[in-house]
Amino acid sequence: MTLITTLFFMVVTVLAIAPHLGPSVVGAHKGGGGGYLYPQFYDHSCPRAQEIVKSVVAQAVAKETRMAASLLRLHFHDCFVKGCDASLLLDSSGTIISEKRSNPNRNSARGFEVLDAVKSALEKECPGTVSCADIIALAARDSTVLAGGPSWEVPLGRRDSRGASLSGSNNDIPAPNNTLPTIITKFKLQGLDLVDLVALSGSHTIGFSRCTSFRQRLYNQTGNGLPDSTLDPSYAAQLRTGCPRSGGDQNIFPLDPASPAHFDNNYFKNIIYSKGLLNSDEVLFSKSLKTMELVKLYAQNNDLFFQQFAISMVKMGNISPLTGEKGEIRKHCRKINTY
Ligand code: HEM
User: Fold this and answer.
1) Which end of the chain, N or C, is more open, meaning fewer C-beta atoms within 10 Å of its C-beta?
2) Measured from the CB, is residue 215 less than 6 Å from ligand 1?
3) Phi and psi dihedrals of 168, rounded to 5?
4) Quick check: CB of 77 below 6 Å from ligand 1?
5) What are the disulphide bonds in this sequence (predicted)?
6) Reduced to 3 DSSP states, what percent helix, strand and coil does the chain have, rounded to the nearest 5?
7) Of these residues, 29, 44, 77, 332, which one is catalytic?
8) 262 is catalytic
9) Is 249 annotated among the ligand-binding residues?
10) Is the pLDDT of residue 36 over 90?
11) Quick one: which H or E segment has residue 239?
């Protein structure tokens, strides 16, 4: 046999066995259980899964526009705590102390009923098949699209945790008054870099914040009894009318007043005009040249923001998933299975 023929047979053999080595699809990502996430995961086991998620989410967003933002945020709060494993969705019971009680989530995280509705529709269609963690990831993508943002293929195959971490939720999710270095470190711990941080913060182009999350900026930013000097004074005055020195903690304000329900790059433009609502938004512009350049770039170029947002969402969605034999497929997203 000539060398050429030998090489030919080697190539043919590799191609023939490749499908049996695991998913050889574009967009596959290594998971924590030795398995992979890939967009076609439910193509055979639950072919209508993505369609069902989309339809339930679309109904919920049609009923309340804000729901798109709330569902997008749930994916972030899930993935930053023990990976994207739906630990966030567990209610307290038995040994489980719910993450819903943590500082970032209490009186704030919302949209759980919508995910329950998706899960119950999926359990009817294909029982015990689609994980709650994948439902959150798909709902985040569908919400973004419904709000006018970019779309992406969601790698799938995550399994659900059998536990939650209240301390993880308190410590690992950045707080709005964290310094930029702290926020950067919290992203880095999840394998996310500065580009991911700035692009993903662009989620604040939709949704609302409570007064309690930014009050400090209006009255006493640095402990000297003065408002944050980096906040536009007339915008600050306007915010003070609805967010008094004390009381009104739960009053809500759009994160992007320019277009609160529309997913676009106005968030970045607001920041440049000293009208970023949260301190964590503003510091992206004032505390690092690198993040400042990215804010300017996305403010100038919506397409670039959309492209990077999609890439960074897939990256965030790949944080330590449970795959293979790890975890379980919960029957109900609020509780672990009983055997
Ligand atoms: C960079 C660090 C981040 C900080 C400090 C932060 C902080 C916050 C805070 C304080 C709120 C308002 C919560 C309230 O007052 O009830 C909020 C809302 C929101 N966040 Fe973030 N966030 C960050 C990154 C992200 C990321 C990465 C995403 C998504 C990928 C995201 C999506 C959202 C959305 C969509 C809302 C509005 C939710 C609603 O209206 O229900 N945030 N965030």
Assistant:
1) C
2) no
3) -60, -40
4) no
5) 46-126, 79-84, 132-333, 211-243
6) 50, 5, 45
7) 77
8) no
9) no
10) no
11) helix 233-242
Which tens digit of pLDDT belongs to each residue from 120-164? 999 999 999 999 999 999 999 999 999 999 999 999 999 999 999
What's 146-167 look like in SS3? HCCCCCCCCCECCEECCCCCHH
Is the CB of residue 331 less than 8 Å from the CB of residue 337? yes
Q: If you take atom 40 of ligand 1, which residue's CA is the nearest one?
A: 207
Helix axes 132-146, 49-63, angle to 10 degrees: 50
On whether the CB atoms of residues 283 and 183 are closer than 8 A, the answer is yes
Q: Is 193 annotated as a binding-site member?
A: no
Q: Which residue has the tokens 């711990």?
A: 189
- Per-residue pLDDT of 2-18, as tens digits, reads 434 443 444 333 333 33
Encode burial over 181-190: b for 16+ CB neighbours within 10 A, e otherwise.
eebbebbeeb
What tokens were used for 248?
Answer: 């009104």
How many Å apart are CA 266 and CA 260, to the nearest integer?
9
- Class of residue 36 by CB neighbours under 10 A (exposed 0-12, middle 13-18, buried 19+): buried
Rounded Cα distance, 189 and 187, in Å: 5
Residue nearest to atom 18 of ligand 1 (CA): 209
H or E segment at 252? strand 252-254
